[in-house]
Each structure stands twice: as structure tokens, then as C-alpha cells.
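Re-run requested by the PI after the first attempt was lost when the workstation crashed. Everything re-entered from the original request form. Ligand of interest: zinc ion.
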Amino acid sequence: MKYQLLLPMLAFTASAWAQPRLANFTASPGEFQLSAATTITAVGELRPLADYLSPHLGCTSSENYSADGGVILEIDQKSDLPSEGYRLSVMPDHISITGRDYGGVFNGVQELFRRLPAEVYSMKGLSQTVTLPCGEVTDAPKFPYRGFMLDVCRTWSDKTRVKRYIDLLAYHNLNKLHLHLTDDEGWRIEIKSHPELTEIGGFRGGDSPIAAVYGKLNEKYGGYYTQEDMREIIAYAAARNIEIIPEIDLPGHSRAIGSVIREVRCPYVTDTVSTIGYDDRSAWCVAREENYVLLEEIMKEICALFPSKYVHVGGDEVRVGQWNRCLDCRALMQRKGIPDAHALQDVFQHRLNKILAANGKQPAVWNEAAERGSISKDNLVYGWHNLQACHNVIEKGYHTVMMTKEFFYIDMHQGKHEQGHDWAGIIDTKRVFEFNFAENGFSEEDVKKFVGFEAPFWSETYVSNNPEKDDYLDYMCFPRLCALARLGWNGDGEAWESYYKELREQHYDRLSAMQVHFRLFPPMVSYENELLTVTTDDNSDIYYLKDGREHRYTKPISTTEPHRYLFYTRYGSGISGEAADDSYYRRIYPAVTLTSSMEFTERFPTSNVEKYKGLTATTRGCRKGDWLLFTFDGGVSCREILVKTGYPQIIKCIFNSGYAEVSYDGTNFEKAGELTNGMITLYPEKKVRAIRVVSTSDGNGTSAVNIQPLKIKPRL
Ligand code: ACM
Ligand code: ZN
């Protein structure tokens, strides 16, 4: 059967050609029939692009321009198109995609994909003939840098996952993949002159000197890219118009290398253990000359391996107190008249930049490294910390990547009750999309200094039970990355409503064909006259959880117990955030006293927990038999109590194993269940007088136990 794109010419300009700016579109008479029988023609450097395109369409490709048309890919270096711009012409006898460079032709191919049925993204080839109306569109990105950062240190992402993500980025015309390759928790790129960096530093837990992620203390796990792997990734990305930007995070965030090559860090004896259970020192010693020899050895290999113009060398969150404590660093400051330890970071950076220059590279850094304006203007600055930090580096004249955390940190949660971090706020797709330079105080002149946008996914505190699975990463990345890509391509100022319509009506189908487990917006829930009504605006199917079982919602639910229903929706391979009547989340705050076999710090006293203000912290990690006792003043009647040790969202400073007991009379205790990840939910049927939590393990790998206020749901 023939597949017709059911789009009359008018709709064609409005939706099928929606991505480009419409001014660049011209329609012409006729149509082109595209099918798996069409031939793709490309020569020379465009051959990898033909190889990329063929399996998407199910077409064969040729190196001979034949008279019978087909899809013709061409680079025209004399073209008036800007870098990465394209001209896509659909004519009755052929389609031509032209760019001034490879990236331009690649972007034109993506334009063609968006005009085809979503099945093109499933890589099975076209199942039907598609009729494309004739016309021509030219377009080019507004910003040359449209990036995603993946933290492969904290949670390891292997080559397969990285390649999958490269494909997903490429479908969105994103053109940079910034790989965060080293950090406190791992060294993930082979350095042949120092194989120990990955052989030891590529793994966490077990006998590794690098602590495991919380709750995974006994397991050794991880991985790293060999240089051969990385060459494969770089080539795979290049064929998809994506440049890999490597990051070696220096001089802070360096516990991993410091655990493998101990001399790298300042030579003082630590008297503190960080809250994550290992040596507090995380920075390179600036005064140690051998460190620069080591950096030369490392950078020589990194610069030879990665074709990118920039090598990202970190510079974020350096805890300069370490340098103040180091006799060698202090002597250096005195000798050279360096006013303070912050200025010492600039000294380190100058040396590093020289090494990069000697290897033909320019440095990229986090905004802290450029804060004082002392490093040269050939540094590309990544403005992450906040808008003020971005203003600061722009004023100092640096070319900057906009990735301020309040809009672009996609490890943040997308709704109050959703997974992810909360320290930079709730960031959903709409928030990313609605970022606006002018509204955030940037002038047109300022905007010229921004090379583009990036969204990072930090993975240390993957707030998921299955951090290594793609589902969670997909949920966090899409469609937020789609919105970022659009900002980078068209610039800010587009209306959310029309973009959201495009997501719902076109792009969710594409994401589904890509098999991305993307996030949908949560449904709307209302409760009136004992009727729970749930609606969506995206044509998704509504489900709910009740008593732990999933049900399909088909009509309003008549109930006097709205607090028992939790709703969400599905569309294609997407799933929404949760939604419920407010009563589902309502809590009560009965008077409670906390006592323990452990002492509590003055900074985080038990009154935090007793007054439901925040967490308390013990002065040491727990031992077998340690206990916590919550005693209710007069008892509490409720339907649910969540008892949680650890940080609000991170599995950290917990009772690594243990159990909870409940007392209904204040004297006798009954076992209520085992802790999972330091927590347990209790469903008491009677009035509770006290809850006792008992540790069954010696130590939790950290220097404290954190206890959070109980979360108690009323009976209603
Ligand atoms: C950062 O989030 N430390 C760049
Ligand atoms: Zn030092």
C-alpha cells in the first residue's frame, strides 16, 4: 500500500516543515515518491553519511550520479549557506540535500527524516512509499554549540550506551557530546603511559581505593574506554555530525587519580574523612613539579586521541582549603607573591593551558576557572553555577556555553514528586524551552558571546533503583534535550504552546520509534463530589495504582478515598510523571521524640527531626546493634509511616542493613520488616506508640548516619 503523507500544502508549511524558520520555505508544484527502492547517491567524504542514511530508509546507496534521480547528497563549498546550514530540495525527479560542509548535509538529512513517517527512526527501512510534496527549504542553526554532557565517572556508561545516545542526539541536530571522563569516583579513559589509572581507577567498591556508590559497598564494579574504544566512539559520532569533547576534571574532583597515584595530592596527613568515606583531599598539589610532567604525559595522549579543538580541563568546585593546609603550596604562594589560594588555581590553569597549547589544543573550563578573568580568552567557558556566574564570565569577555543549573541541569527532578535532584529546582521541558536570554538580563551583545547551550547529566547521585538502566536516563533526558536542541537551533523566544503541540502531535511518535523511554507531562487530577476525574492533553492512556496494582482508567472514579489513587499515563514508549489528589500527599506531624545509641551532632540536632524541619546527623557511622527510637507522645493513628535513614534523595549515610520494630503499647516491640536502602514504609493498623530501627551491619562506609523526619500519612 502506498503511504500518503496526508498533508495538504498549507499544513505542510505549518507542521511538516515546522523545525526550520518558515521564511525559508518555498513550495513548488509536484511531488516525489520515496521508498526503499530509491537510491542514495553520495561521493567522497559524504560516504559515511550515505551509509548512515541507507538503513533508515532501507535504500541502497551509490557513488555514481545516475540520471534516474534518487536522494542526492552534496557538499558545495562555494554555497552561500553558513556552516551546518542546508538546502533540502524536493523535486519531482529527485531530492537534493546540499550543505557547505558535512554537518550541513547531515542536518539536511535530519530535515528529511522529520518529513517522513516516524518509522524512519526505527531503522527498519521504509515499509511504504512516501509521497513528498515538492518544495525547498534552507536553514541553519543559530548557535554552533548544541551539546549534552554525560557523566560516565560516577555511573559507568559503556560503549553501547554511548553510541545509542549519539544516535539520539544526532536525531535532534545536537552536535557536541561532552564526556565527563574523570572525577572523584572514576578515571574512565585509558592512558597508555599510566595503565593503572583505569586498571585501578576505572572501578569502585570491593578492593578498589575508590568508594562504591552508597548502598553498593561490597560490590566491585565499573569500566573504562580503551583508546581503541574511544576512537570507535569518535568516528561513530563524527559520522553523525557530533564532536566528542573530552573532560579531564582538574585540579579538583581528582580523588580517583589521587587514590591511584597518591603523590598527586598535597602532602599533608589528612585528619578528616569526607562524608563519602575516603580521603578528604580531592585536588592536585599546585606546588609539586612532577605533577606537570604527569599532566604532560596524560594530555599528550588525550590531545592525540581526540580530534576536538577543545579539551575540557574542569576547574570547578576546587576546595582551596587543601592548598592552604599544604606547606609546599603555601611556600609557592609566598615565593611568587600569589595573594590567595584562589589565585593559585589560576597558576595551575596557566601551566595546564601551556601544555594544551603545546599539543595543539585550546582549553575549555567550568566558570570558576575564569572567575578572576586571569586565564586567557581562548578558554571556552562553561557557565553552569548560576546566571550571575554566566554574566560574570561574559562581562570578562569569554566565549561561553550557556548551561546554568536553574534551567539546564537535567539530573534535577521534573516535578515535585518525581525522581531526580531538587537542589537547582524543578526543571521540566517547558522550563528548558522557555529559557530566554533577555529575560535573564543578557543584552544582544552578550548573546553574541554565547556559543550555544549544553545540558549535563550528572550521575553520582542517580536517584534511581536502577541507575545502570537506560529507562531512567531516557526519562531524564527526553524531551528536555529536544527542547534544548530547539533552543540551540532556533534561539529563544518561540512560543511554548506551538512547540508543545509539535511534541504531542509529531515528536512523541518519533521518540517512540527511537524506543526512547521519554517523559510525558503528568495528567490533571481533580476531586469533586466524591468523583476523581483525570484528564490529559496529549492523547496518552491513563493508568492508576491502587493497593499496589495497576489499573486502566477509563472513566471518572466514584470514591470517598481519593488518597488511595496514584495516576500516570503512557503514550508509545513514554510514561508520565505521577499525579494524585492532594490528599494522597497529605501528612500529619504528631509530637515525637528521637533517642539513639549514637550521639548526634550539634549542627544537625534531633530537634530537626522532632519538629519535622530536616535531617539529623550522628557523630559516627553505625555499628551492629545500634538503634534509633521514635516515641510518639500519646501515640499516632495513621495509615502509613515512612522511616528513612540517609539523605533526602541520595542513598548515603544510611543504615546499610537493619530492621524496624513497632510497639503498640510502648513496652513490647514486634518486628515490622527489613530496611531497603536504609528505609522502610510501615502500614500500622493500630495506634503506634513507638518505632525502633536496629542496624545489623558494622559501618555504612560513611562517617555518619542521617535520619530524616518521619513521613506520616493520616488515616482520613
Ligand atoms: C559542576 O556541576 N560541578 C560543574
Ligand atoms: Zn600542595
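Saved to the shared folder this time. Residues 266, 285-287, 323, 326, 328-329 surround zinc ion (ligand 2) (CB under 6 Å).
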